[in-house]
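Chapter review: from sequence to fold.
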Amino acid sequence: METVKVGVGALSIEDVVNVARYDAPIEITDEALVTMGETRKRVEELASNPTPVYGISTGFGALAKRHIPAEMRATLQKSLVRSHAAGSGPEVEREVIRALNLLRISTLCTGRTGIRPEVAQCYAKLLNAGITPIVHEYGSLGCSGDLAPLAHSALVLLGEGRARTKDGTEITGAEACKAAGFEPIELKEKEGLALINGTDGMLGQLCLAIDDIRKLVTTADIATALSLEGLTGTDTVFAADLQELRPHPGQAVAAANVLALVKDSEILARAAEDFAQNQVQDAYSVRCSPQVAGGVRDTLSHAITVANNELAAAVDNPVVALDGRVTSNGNFHGAPLAYVLDFLAIVTADLASISERRTDRFLDPARNRGLHAFLADDPGVDSGHMIAQYTQAAIVSEMKRNAVPASVDSIPSSAMQEDHVSMGWSAARKLRRNVDGLTRVLAIEILTAARAIDMREGKPGVGTGAVVSLLRENVEGPGPDRFLAPDIENTVQLVQSGEIVTAARGAVDKLG
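The token string follows.
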């Protein structure tokens, strides 16, 4: 994996994903080291000044009015990290913490935090060694940044707290520092605050979700095309000129994808005359799929814009401005991220909802256009995919609950000094659950639609045929009832890995 350069400029979403998921190594640029060194001098000047400066020679939050004498400032920074490492609950996933740590390093490298270069270098060593601090589910309000998650990570740099090696072994913070090749850090003025005050957890999870949803929205088009064939619908509603009448860019991409996937479908060709005479229209879950999947795409485009803006940010408080002044600000507030995290939770829930509705149509002989009830081999003896749809329904119901926005909630904290918070971390956590749910719902639709296609006469389209062929390498075709959970899980793995999309792209000239 190519090394990711971390400097004064912005990382890309792909950089975050490569480091978080695929353990790409990082390297801090010389320019960043010089910039950090220069701004550190300004912090040291202010530290020696008798005038109190927030974050350098004062307490924090509601305790900011207390001036801290020089001999107690190292203790102040260490106490800050220790006290803020107050998370609780299950451990957060490794990839999320790696993303969080990379993004904190990135902000440090802007030089706007006033931290010593060697602190950022030690953080990079920890990341490159594959060592991941243990961080817990609860503790961040998404304002003053992700304080508790970042504090748990920072604690390991001090030789305290707990961490896991690349193979998952739990070790102490001191063991983590040794394994990464550095001595535990003794923090100086401003440094404890600089390590914990950022939106990195929210942003990291947003970047990872964007990477997933990009793939899943194309997977949704594949699932739609499979269902269109399995239900012997009509592809006429996906025509390009109809999409141009309502010029949302995502809608045009979704419709074009479906048309490309079902190209040369014998199943649809055989059914066309009967459809025109007897069916007239498909249900909304089929006919309106480009409008829904297109809306997801357009929402995702907005989320990408927000993520890129945040990747270019230096989030800390106080911050060392370009003119050298150290000043308080509100850039740590997670609202911009919280809004799009919530928005993505909404659209993933709706994309799963329409997928479940298409699956349900296959199971009802009154609506599946000539197939057995529940696609069962021998209805009554066999139940077919009856309970697979139950699983979808359970997941979709939970996803709808997760679509309730977190960003409209706020619980004041820090003795009312922090009286409005974003809850962006909570928005990110429920979005991760929705991404997983959408993966599973689409997998069940693909599994069900492929079974229906196998029950029809004629060959499927060029793209849908490639997907069914891939699926049959991993999952048996129609037959008497068998243990269904492994079939579902095998299909989930094909969706998660991107193999479904890869198979379709290999057969279709252009797939958006």
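Two observations follow directly from the output. DSSP finds 20 helices and nine strands in the chain. The chain has two domains: 4-197, 206-316+345-506.
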